[in-house]
Design brief:
Elements lengths: L1 E4 L4 H11 L8 H14 L1 H12 L10 H10 L2 H19 L6 E4 L5 E8 L2 E5 L8 H14 L3 E6 L9 H10 L3 E4 L2 H10 L9 E3 L4 H10 L4 E2 L7 E6 L5 H12 L6 E6 L2 H15 L5 H11 L1 E4 L3 H11 L3 E5 L15 E4 L5 H6 L25 E8 L2 H17 L3 H8 L5
Parallel strand pairs: 1-11, 4-5, 4-7, 5-6, 7-8, 9-10, 9-12, 10-11, 12-13
Antiparallel strand pairs: 2-3, 3-14
Helix pairs in contact: 2-3, 2-8, 2-9, 4-7, 5-6, 5-7, 6-7, 8-9, 10-11, 15-16
């Protein structure tokens, strides 16, 4: 963990921010390329082979059956199902507000311009699994696709050592509205969704978080299919003033540190006393956590505290890092909202901890990492739609603009373009 002052350590802080964006492991690209190519050529046979190799299980079939889903409902507790449905309602309500409609405009000559909006037809949602269930990743990827009107939503997720998909994940897929579920993960799942196999039809777009192998595979197939983003290790930045509760700050930093030793917890404040109190709470809270080793490694190797002159200066740090998650714990957080330019998800006030966004608030938790919030956005309904422009000209309208089109085409040396227009003028 580093403690740096800004602007005294400006160069070092910039170096750390830049390093967060460079998470792609080029050394693993070769093995991922081999996996993708083998699945492309050998289909299901390669999927079974890689599942034996990586997940240590011999599968007889890839698709999860209706019977397995029904059995899953018998093994989850009713409280979970009730909480899941509430989360689904909140996520659905939020994403429905993102919907856009096709539009058309016309002028006095009868010319019509417009934009047609259509959903992607078939989408693949990658859900991490194997060692732990991630029903939240199911609902965060499947629901916006459904809201957008996607015809077919497919979920892929790694099996456990018995070749099964976790019951909580299965129930979430059914409740969220997925059409098909396959027990396959890793780069091989991404390849299967891209090229198709005997069991899995190809999709048009792949979304959802995964490990470095999944991310590299998504990078590799991008352009053949659409992808949402290249997600790196999780990160949280908290900017707080003297009114903030140090134990809340510590707990929220650890909430992301428990993800991965590479997760980056960053704390920014002008108050040195608050720093001391937060560090004390971090040490105490870590002791009783099941993932304390992961938390400790994350905090030790990726943790950062930045001491700034004031909250306004702290917001410069936020916009420099473009954090995946940003919590603003100050007396009047809405006062500073116009100054926040780069952040994936923004949490305002002491009672808006990041985990609410992960599970129940409504906004999506698939977020840009590594500073990419400078130019990209959380997963949304927009990721599941396509926009087509529409042009209709009347004869009168065509005659008015034809000369300009001919002139520009000729200036660029495209006489065929010019002829396409001039022939309609009888030239």
């Amino acid at each position: 963990m580093e403690i740096l002052r800004y602007p005294e350590n400006k160069d070092r802080i910039k170096e750390i921010a830049k390093k967060r964006a460079d998470f792609i492991d080029e050394d693993k690209l070769k093995s991922v390329q081999e996996i993708v190519n083998r699945v492309k050529v050998r289909g299901d046979e390669a999927l079974f082979e890689y599942t034996r190799k990586f997940d240590r299980v011999n599968l007889k079939k890839l698709r999860v059956s209706e019977k397995e889903i029904e059995e899953a409902y018998q093994s989850v507790d009713k409280g979970f199902l009730q909480d899941l449905k509430q989360a689904i309602n909140n996520i659905g309500d939020y994403h429905r507000k993102q919907l856009k409609e096709s539009w058309f405009s016309h002028d006095r000559k009868g010319n019509i311009m417009g934009q047609l909006i259509n959903p992607v037809q078939r989408v693949g949602a990658y859900v991490p699994g194997g060692r732990a269930p991630y029903p939240s990743s199911v609902i965060m990827t499947v629901i916006p696709a459904r809201v957008a009107g996607v015809d077919e939503v497919v979920v892929v997720t790694p099996p456990d050592k018995e070749g099964k998909v976790n019951s909580y994940t299965l129930v979430a897929t059914r409740e969220a509205g997925a059409d098909e579920i396959y027990r396959v993960g890793g780069a091989q799942a991404v390849a299967a969704l891209t090229y198709g196999t005997e069991s899995i039809k190809p999709v048009e777009k792949i979304v959802g978080p995964g490990n470095i192998y999944v991310t590299l595979a998504k990078k590799m197939v991008s352009g053949i299919v659409g992808i949402d983003m290249l997600a790196g290790p999780s990160e949280i930045m908290i900017l707080a003033d003297e009114t903030a509760e140090p134990e809340y700050i510590a707990a929220d930093l650890l909430s992301q540190a428990e993800h991965d030793p590479l997760a980056a917890p960053v704390f920014v404040t002008p108050d040195w006393k608050l720093v001391e109190e937060v560090i004390s709470h971090l040490e105490n809270q870590m002791k009783d956590q099941p993932r304390r080793e992961t938390m400790a490694k994350s905090w030790e190797n990726q943790g950062l505290i930045i001491i700034v002159e004031d909250i306004k200066t702290g917001l410069e740090m936020v916009n420099l890092f473009g954090p995946e998650h940003f919590e603003l714990m100050v007396e009047d957080p809405f006062k500073y909202l116009p100054d926040i330019k780069n952040a994936g998800a923004i949490f305002l006030g002491k009672y808006s901890p990041e985990p609410l966004g992960d599970y129940v608030a409504g906004p999506n938790h698939v977020l840009p990492t590594g500073g990419t919030a400078r130019f990209s956005s959380p997963l949304s309904v927009d990721d599941f739609i396509k926009k087509s422009s529409l042009i209709f000209y009347s004869r009168e309208g065509f005659n008015e603009v034809a000369g300009g089109a001919i002139s520009l085409a000729q200036k660029e040396g495209f006489n065929g373009h010019a002829s396409s227009v001039s022939i309609r003028l009888g030239r």
